[in-house]
Amino acid sequence: MRLIVQLGLGEDVTLPQSRIVTGELSWLGSFRFGDEFALAVDLIDSGKADLSALVTHRFALGDAGQAFDLASNRREAMKVLLEF
Predict the structure, then answer these.
(1) Among 36, 19, 38, which residue's Cα sits nearest to residue 27?
(2) pLDDT tens digits for range 22-75
(3) What integer pLDDT is reported at residue 5 of this predicted model?
(4) What b/e sequence results for 63-80 when a residue is b if at least 16 CB atoms lie within 10 Å of its CB, and e otherwise?
(5) Is the pLDDT of residue 4 over 70?
(6) Residue pair 7/31 in contact by the 8 Å Cβ criterion
(7) What is the DSSP code (8-state) at residue 18?
(8) What is the DSSP pairing of strand 55-60 with strand 79-83?
(9) What one-character DSSP code corresponds to residue 24?
(10) For residue 49, what are the contacts with CB-CB under 8 A and spacing of at least 6?
């Protein structure tokens, strides 16, 4: 399956329906919250929200291929970070 993800709110747009159908694409919308995003960043930055338990693996930038392979396996990894 090939997937297009539309993030956030915006103006109405015209979709290329024939391209979506002939390309057998799936279009997925994802709603985001503007104020909550800034709050989340502040909580993480201040240390009030510790997200370290969500990071299951860390890789050096040179091992990016291995990191992306692992990140696509949800049974083995939750969040995979590239460190550089």
Answers:
(1) 19
(2) 888 887 776 766 677 778 888 989 999 888 888 999 999 999 999 999 999 989
(3) 64
(4) eeeebeeebeeeeeeeeb
(5) no
(6) no
(7) H
(8) parallel
(9) T
(10) 40, 43
Residue type at 63?
D
* Displacement of CA 79 from its chain's centroid (Å): 10
* Phi, psi dihedrals of residue 32, rounded to the nearest 5°: -125, 160
Tokens 């960043």 belong to: 41
DSSP 41-82: HHHHHHTSS--GGGEEEEEEGGGHHHHHHHHT-TTT-SEEEE
pLDDT at 12 over 70: yes
